[in-house]
Amino acid sequence: DAPDSYAYDGKRVKKWNVSCDAYGQPWVAGDVIGCCLDMDEGKISFYRNGDSMGVAFSNVRQEGESMAYFPAISLSHGERCELNFGYVPFKYPVEGMLPLQPKPPAKKLIQASYLISCLERLARMLVRSDDKTSGTNQAPGSKIHSNPSHPSEQPPTRTPDGAQESLQENVALTSHLLFTEDDSVLLAASVFEHLRPLLVEDYVVHAALLPALLRM
Questions:
Q1: How many CA atoms lie within 13 A of 81 on its CB side?
Q2: Over the stretch 25-36, which tens digit does the pLDDT of each residue have?
Q3: Where do the B30.2/SPRY domain residues begin and end (predicted)?
């Protein structure tokens, strides 16, 4: 309710800055409410599930380094919410707006995505091996035959440094190798050794790991 305090209330469908006026849409449980502060234009806008509800406030005071704005919420008894300032990917990103918490370098996401794709391929090979050996007398740890049709028929894979040609050459060299399930475990352990440091970033977990788990 102060001159430099700005709020949107989806229960009463009003905006607040000293006084209140009608604004926006009523929110319901599960809604994602976005708040965009444009300090270049001095404007504040709110979004509901990715849809803009228009500019709520104009002429927002800009005083350089002499003042700052802080995000805040007001909850009643039994209410709860989750705040995301960019530590995980936005469900409804707004073009031209940046999160308060910057996302990790793109290189980390590329590396994590590549390593996770390696684990996915290993998992698929193990599943195919189980399908082939089911109903036979092959013992656990039997050999798995990696035999893609031809390297040129494989979908392009982006490596951490973009060395797609080198990857295809490696596929050509290993396409007819035989290895055991124990070998697969060792390969997976090696991949995890490189992947583990990248997964300390919540953003990487949500952007790369969770989608892969949902695909499995």
A1: 15
A2: 999 999 999 999
A3: 1-90
